[in-house]
Amino acid sequence: MASDTSAIRILDRDRVRVVTLDRPDRRNALTPDALDALEAAVSGADQPVVYLRGAGPAFCAGADLDVVADLDRASAEAFAEHGQRVADAVEEAESAVVAGIDGAARGGGVELALAADLRVATPEATFAEPGVKLGLFGAWGGTVRLPRVVGEGAALDLALSGRTVDAETALRMGLVSRVTDDPRAVADELAANDPETLRAVKARMRDDAPANRRERREAEVFGRLVERHADAIADRRES
Q1: Where, if anywhere, are coiled coils annotated (predicted)?
Q2: 192/188 Cα distance (integer angstroms)
Q3: What is residue 1's predicted lDDT score, i.e. its pLDDT?
Q4: φ, ψ for residue 19 (rounded to 5)?
């Protein structure tokens, strides 16, 4: 089933929902309406995996500067909070979210990718937080997630310089998980696994409770999965 909502396209294929940012003439820059449509597309997925991509030669240029140019102080703060909510929705989705990055990821595009569970780049992908060059910075959770993913030193380097890095540099930094000609294949790879286990692994990895409570939850979920898959485990042992 295919559908169009604002600047977001949805294509449901078996165990993967493909969500495409679809404003290639604007390098898939995001307006408030597009942010809402993106949140709905990711949060509403029944599939175990969501594959997030950009149409055309860019992944996402971030916030649409035509929108930003018309903001005052209060509406700018609200727009930042809007983007943060959408990035949070990507991070908190029950589905495993794979960002397939081909071409430019800039500003909010990087921040959306940071909220995904896996970031998979093509060799042509490039990354930058160029807001500093306009007297701005990444405010869709960028100052929170970027240091968490790449470390404080590398995060400050990217955010303070606004420099552009290529896919191999991003891989060395830990900004992306893999570099491949076909990021979609990684989404299919994940989707071949048990959906409940995918959800359980993501929930446990994202759990921010105290360590002893996380470990207790980990044990409980492991026990439930062993019980559920007892026959498959027995078959594997005997093979």
Answers
A1: none
A2: 6
A3: 42
A4: -115, 120
Spatial distance between the Cα atoms of 129 and 148, rounded to a whole number of angstroms: 15
Cβ partners under 8 Å of residue 146, min gap 6:
110, 111, 114, 129, 138, 155, 158, 159
How many angstroms separate the CA atoms of 158 and 138, rounded?
11
CA 47 – CA 238 distance, rounded (Å)? 32
- Can you tell me the distance from the alpha carbon of 224 to that of 109, in angstroms, rounded to the nearest whole number? 37
pLDDT digits (tens, 9 = 90+) for 59-93: 999 999 999 999 999 999 999 999 999 999 999 99
202 domain-assigned = no
Task: Provide the sign of the torsion angle of the four alpha carbons 98, 144, 44, 32, taken in this order.
Answer: negative
> CA dihedral in degrees (42, 44, 46, 52; nearest 10)?
-10
Which domain, by its residues, includes 232?
Answer: 207-238
The reply to whether 199 falls in a domain is: no
- Residue 239's pLDDT band, with cuts at 50, 70 and 90, is low
